[in-house]
Amino acid sequence: MKNKFILSVALMITAIxxxxxxxxxxxxxxxxxxxxxxxxxxVNLDKIVKNxxxxxxxxxxxxxxxxxxxxxxxxxxxxxxxxQNTAINYKNSIQGEQAQSEIDQFPEYIINKAESLRKRKMxxxxxxxxxxxxxxxxxxxxTPKAQYMLGDVYMNDFRDFSTAIQEYRxxxxxxxxxxxxxxxxxxIGYIYANILxxxxxxxxxxxxFMEQFPNHELYPSVKFELEFLGKSIEEIPALKHxxx
Length: 244
Hints:
Elements: H1 2-18, H2 22-34, H3 38-51, H4 58-71, H5 76-89, H6 94-104, H7 106-119, H8 123-136, H9 143-156, H10 161-174, H11 181-195, H12 199-212, H13 219-227
């Protein structure tokens, strides 16, 4: 008897939930977001899309699902899929046009979002965004920047110098000719020279830089580093005053 009562209550709650209007479901999704109940917000918006596909709120609900995945859950994969759904299923709506515009500018969005996440110290999420960029847009003009940023995050934020070198090296191997290439090569030499104290490896990288980029703005810095490689500040005339 008790089990029948519980089942009846559950069915009643389900019926009430299913009978909610699009406006009520949309308002519920806003309330869900206010208390960080993100998954339930998606559920309520999805009910509008599936149960009321012709309603004027359906396109807004579909677009809002995409926004939640991208801006709340930092889920690029599902966010992009939901943008596509918006652009395809509601192409004549304001939301459909906006979704298509965001799809067209998605690489720029990824870079900007990665920079924002990094500033907020959400480093794993920043790395995930940059890796998504290099994986999904391997030939985009911004991808060399994304790959360089990966090296920079591992060097300056994670302080994982071995991985930083690996990520910088990918710039040289995959994006030769990009504006990031000389900077990545310099950073590899810098890490070897000033952090890992591997003078032999640093010399190899710095000499490669001087040979490949004799007119680059970093050339004087590389020449200076190479000239005083392995020497202390006291042994460098230009820096000796720092210790006095």
